[in-house]
Amino acid sequence: MKKKYMKLVIDEELHRELKLYSVAINKTMNDIIVELIRQHLQEAKKEEQ
Fold first, then answer.
1. Taking the domains of the chain in order of start, what are their residue ranges?
2. Which tens digits make up the pLDDT trace of 4-28?
3. Residue 20, φ and ψ in degrees, nearest 5
4. C-alpha 11 chain-centroid distance
5. Is residue 1 pLDDT above 90, yes or no?
6. C-beta contacts of 9-15 below 8 A and 24+ residues apart
7. What DSSP letter does each residue of 1-49 carry, written as one string?
8. Average pLDDT for 29-36
9. pLDDT at position 14, please?
10. Which GO terms describe its biological process (predicted)?
11. What pLDDT sits at residue 45?
């Protein structure tokens, strides 16, 4: 699958929490964000139906 890039701007507190969480579960911050976006889109799609 071809990858597309986008810039994400978040506040320092959220960045710190995300970084600590990513280290704790041994996943990249990007992987966590992509997973959350996919979950959100799937839930939104279910609600539309």
1. 12-48
2. 999 999 999 999 999 999 999 999 9
3. -60, -40
4. 15
5. no
6. none
7. -----------HHHHHHHHHHHHHHT--HHHHHHHHHHHHHHHHHHHH-
8. 97
9. 98
10. regulation of DNA-templated transcription
11. 96
Tokens of 2: 């071809």
Return the residue matching tokens 């597309």. Answer: 4
- The residue among 29, 10, 11 whose CA lies nearest residue 19 is 29
Q: Considering only CA atoms, which of 19, 38, 37, 39 is closest in space to residue 29?
A: 19
| pTM for this model (two decimals) | 0.84
To which residue do tokens 């990858």 refer? 3
Hey, what are 13's tokens? 């507190």
8, amino acid identity: L
What is the amino acid identity at position 28? T
How confident is the model at residue 44, as a pLDDT?
Answer: 97
What is the reported pLDDT for 49? 86
Which two three-digit tokens encode residue 44?
Answer: 């939104």
